[in-house]
Design goal:
By secondary structure, the protein is an alpha+beta fold. It has 22 helices and 47 strands. Strand 6 (67-71) and strand 7 form a beta hairpin.
């Protein structure tokens, strides 16, 4: 049986009705009850707007004995029609999860429905919201999903297993998870209704599960670029004059900053300006002449001229009832809510932060209207999802730009509309990591400004805010030592913004957070499973939070502050300099783009100069993503990508960065790069080549030649520095090579012609690729549903990913867009994880492997009589001249010479 957009329903021997609906190729909606009236297509999360997937899903069904199977291209659910047991399998047939038959429970004063999932002995469980009181790895915990009596701003009912399966509870009622606490081999899910509903998901690992959740619930919002800079909230009693003075202090203290925020006391009646009444500025503290409420003459115009954006605080209680009926599909409520803030936006407001006058556990409750067929009662759910949606969509429709919207609490789906903020907690890093593992990549805890450790941690959050509130927390008021620490981190944050913004694009594209818990990046390292005082910031930076003891995964690592080199795996004790507040390490093979020093992001967006820092010891790949920083043009192709590849072969280091691909209206016309190779312990190179031409060495403290005409070796930190400009026509890649031995002498010792050597090397590469491909043949065995056979070990599962990647390369060599990211998206895995796995299994980086395969195919086509133009097209090259250059570099001869 084949179908799309429909369900299958099974009635068990005990009279239980089970409905399975494929929602994406990796996710299924599961509903069960002993009353057939409740088993319908209705989904509380879909009604709420937390589920976005609507595309038809192709599936097939089959039967064997008592089992019924529903299979999509990437996953399968098997149902035992007799007992009601369910199994979840991957597309390759590996059993991922087992749900035991659901049960009704009748306890004194309560009734409900519960089910249990199998919990394997070595299984790690993550997610379930941002609660800092809970550990990173949730095994052994009972986790209530509610606001009251629970220290969580955003209790998301998303449970993720490191073995490749997850579930999202489909309810707006309070519920609870018991993760191996009552029984070490079971996960129990309880809810207070006589039915069960959840979404069952598959993924290659935690990264893959976040991608599946993104496809199911919708992509996280991409904040405006300036939202990733520094935000500052003024004191409650601030006036317009005080606000301008606070902004000017940042400039005087040489601290970059972008956003100034006001608490809700900016308005005339903060306690009573609720419901449908308009918001009005306080007539004395924020006076605006009514005859000229907009323009450069206002305090907002003055703020804008010195480079700042303005954000306003709004109490949740003022917005709760602004949109009655919004859940019935009418846009009347949205228009009414946004119409109240639209005059403020026209005056120059570019962000809103929602606030609570009461403790969030009490004030964040709301009453979600339920359909008539639902049981009577009220849904204890935060109202911020609806309010966030209406503000974000209203702002976008009004301005065409992304708002900076932060909320104090949320639920599943809030990631689509903005960021989550927290006023403070004892373990801020744990709250943000837990949020990232719950599908919320943009959470921040207000900076603990008065310790260097607090400053250090806060600047490596997805977004950064200093919140004065009722206190005096302006960094300009710090004593000198802490002020120096703050300046150091603020400048570093802004220099890192190209790196951070690229990670933000990846979060919007794949769900992978910017601040990444260690098991996201190192799923095969058992030591990383529960680490709660360190995390990866993007692909390459390892940050220690409130600790000096750090675990290093396998590989080489460099201390960012001192340059000292360490080898993992293992724990180390790190001593940081006085101007720093905690450990910061860089992974070997890292490629980190940086801006020069800027005062705010507007200067960075316009800059034609970028720095590129490369850390030797391993190969690396990076795709820099740039856009205008504020519009939605990136969703329609208005963005620029730059592919960068770094290779370390011991005696030779090479860097290749391609021409910028794509465009956006305000992109810089030219581009110059300051390239910095960090090569601690290797000494100066003998020769430096740029596009095959020898670059002169610059000696002495001052440059006697232009930066782009020479290179310099810094003996103190072992860094090679040189400048390179973008090619004149913006179409050619630039290649930089550092040879630790003299190139001329090395070439004179070669016995074979260069062309023959190239062919031999490429043939060896091709043979290796063929052997790797053959190695994986026959590894796609399918374990029959309903067996008790244990799942395949992790190595086999990962090998399957590499095999699928090899198949993808063979099938799509003619696609120009075939990149590492393209492959990762098609296979529902994180690109960085795929890159590491691919290199580990094949011995080659993805880009090298792809080019070797394309060049071998091109050679075969040409020898068979194909024209150069057709061979180029069949190998994924739109530009025949570029194809000829690549072919000649790879084989040592041109395509025309080969055909002769």
């Amino acid at each position: 049986m084949h179908g799309t957009l429909s369900s299958i329903t099974v009635t068990t021997a005990a009279g239980q009705h089970i409905t399975v609906t494929p929602v994406t190729t990796c996710a299924f909606h599961i509903r069960s009850s002993y009353s057939c009236d409740l088993v319908q297509a209705y989904s509380p999360l879909r009604q709420l707007g937390a589920i976005s997937a609507t595309e038809p899903v192709q599936y097939v069904t089959s039967e064997h004995n008592d089992w019924l199977y529903l299979s999509t291209a990437d996953a399968e659910v098997a149902i035992d029609r007799n007992s009601g047991e369910l199994l979840l399998r991957s597309g390759t047939g590996e059993r991922l999860a087992r749900q035991f038959p659901s049960q009704l429970q009748h306890e004194p004063g309560e009734s409900g429905y519960y089910t249990e999932f199998e919990l394997r002995a070595d299984e790690s469980i993550y997610g379930l919201g941002d609660a800092p009181s809970l550990p990173l790895m949730k095994r052994g915990c009972t986790v209530p999903i509610r606001m009251r009596d629970h220290n969580a701003h955003t209790p998301v009912p998303l449970l993720l297993s490191a073995t490749g399966w997850g579930m999202l509870a489909d309810t707006t009622e309070e519920h609870e998870f018991d993760i191996g606490r009552s029984r070490p081999d079971r996960i129990r899910y309880d809810r207070r209704q006589e039915e069960l509903a959840y979404y069952w998901m598959t993924g290659s690992d935690l990264n893959g599960l976040l991608k599946t959740y993104k496809d199911l619930a919708g992509p996280p919002a991409l904040l405006p670029l300036w939202g990733y800079g520094l935000s500052f909230n003024c004191n409650l009693q601030t006036t317009a004059r005080d606000m301008i003075e606070d902004a000017l202090k940042f400039g005087r203290e040489d601290i970059p900053c972008d956003l100034i925020g006001l608490e809700p006391t900016w308005m005339e009646q903060p306690e009573g300006a609720g419901r449908d009444r308009p918001f009005r500025w306080h007539p004395e503290r924020f006076y605006i002449p009514q005859w000229m409420p907009e323009g450069e003459h206002t305090f907002m115009g003055a703020l804008r001229r010195i480079g700042f954006k303005l954000s306003l605080g709004l109490y949740l209680s003022q917005l709760e009832d602004s949109a009655p009926g919004a859940y019935e599909g009418s846009d009347t409520g949205q228009q009414r809510l946004y119409s109240r803030v639209a005059p403020l936006v026209r005056q120059g407001v570019q962000g809103f932060h929602l606030c609570s006058k009461k403790p969030y556990m009490d004030s964040a409750q709301s009453h979600l209207p339920l359909p008539q067929h639902e049981a009577a009662g009220e849904a204890g759910l935060t109202d911020t999802l609806r309010i966030g949606k209406e503000l974000a969509e209203g702002y976008a429709a009004h301005t065409g730009k992304r708002p900076m919207l932060s909320v104090p609490a949320g639920y599943a789906g809030i990631q689509k509309y903005g960021a989550v903020s927290s006023g403070g907690t004892a373990s801020p890093q744990l709250a943000v990591m837990n949020a990232g593992l719950s599908g919320i990549p943009h959470m921040s805890v207000d900076m603990h400004l008065h310790t260097s450790e607090g400053i250090h941690y806060a600047f490596f959050q997805p977004w950064v805010r200093v919140n004065s509130w009722a206190y005096w927390r302006h960094p300009a008021l710090l004593e000198k030592k802490l002020l120096t620490v703050f300046q150091t981190y603020a400048k570093l944050r802004y220099r890192l913004l190209p790196y951070i913004y690229t990670a933000a694009h990846e979060a919007a594209r794949s769900g992978l957070p910017i601040m990444r818990a260690m098991p996201l990046m190192y799923p095969d390292d058992a030591e990383c499973a529960a680490l709660h005082n360190q995390f990866m910031f993007g692909d390459s930076l390892l940050v220690g939070a409130f600790t000096g003891r750090i675990y290093l995964p396998s590989g080489q690592w460099f201390d960012y502050w001192t340059g000292q080199q360490y080898d993992g795996p293992g724990f180390i004790d790190v001593t940081v300099p006085e101007t720093a507040g905690g450990p910061l390490l860089v992974r070997a093979g890292a490629i980190i783009p940086m801006w020069p020093d800027v005062r705010h992001t507007a200067e960075g967006v316009r800059t034609e100069q970028l720095e590129l820092h490369l850390y030797a010891g391993c190969d690396g790949d990076f795709e820099l993503i740039e856009d205008d920083g504020e519009s939605y043009g990136y969703l329609h192709g208005q963005a620029v990508t730059t592919a960068i590849a770094f290779r370390d072969e011991g005696e030779q280091l090479s860097l290749q960065f391609g021409a910028r691909q794509g465009s956006y209206p305000s992109m810089p016309v030219g581009r110059s790069w300051r390239i910095c190779f960090h090569m601690q312990g290797r000494g100066a190179p003998a020769t430096v080549l740029v596009d095959g031409k020898t670059r002169r060495k610059r000696s002495g403290g001052k440059a006697k030649t232009k930066a782009e005409d020479a290179w310099h070796f810094h003996r103190g930190n072992g860094m090679v520095e040189l400048g390179v400009n973008e090619s004149a026509d913006r179409t050619d890649a630039r290649v930089i090579e550092l040879h630790m031995k003299d190139v001329a002498r090395s070439n004179s010792m070669k016995k074979k012609p260069e062309g023959q050597a190239r062919q031999n090397e490429a043939a060896a590469d091709h043979n290796r690729l063929t052997m790797v491909s053959e190695q994986f043949n026959g590894m796609n065995a399918h374990n029959g549903p309903g067996t008790e056979e244990e799942s395949a070990p992790a190595s086999r599962h990962e090998n399957t990913i590499v095999k699928e990647t090899l198949d993808l390369i063979r099938q799509h060599l003619d696609k120009e867009e075939l990149t590492l990211q393209y492959a990762a998206d098609r296979l529902h895995v994180n690109s960085s994880h795929l890159s590491r796995r691919f290199k580990q299994e094949t011995g080659s980086a993805f880009s090298e492997y792809l080019q070797a395969a394309r060049m071998e195919r091109a050679r075969q086509l040409l020898l068979e009589g194909s024209t150069v133009s057709l061979a180029a097209q069949d190998c994924g090259f739109k530009d025949a001249s570029y194809f000829i250059r690549v072919f000649r570099k790879h084989w040592g001869v041109t395509p025309g010479e080969l055909r002769k």
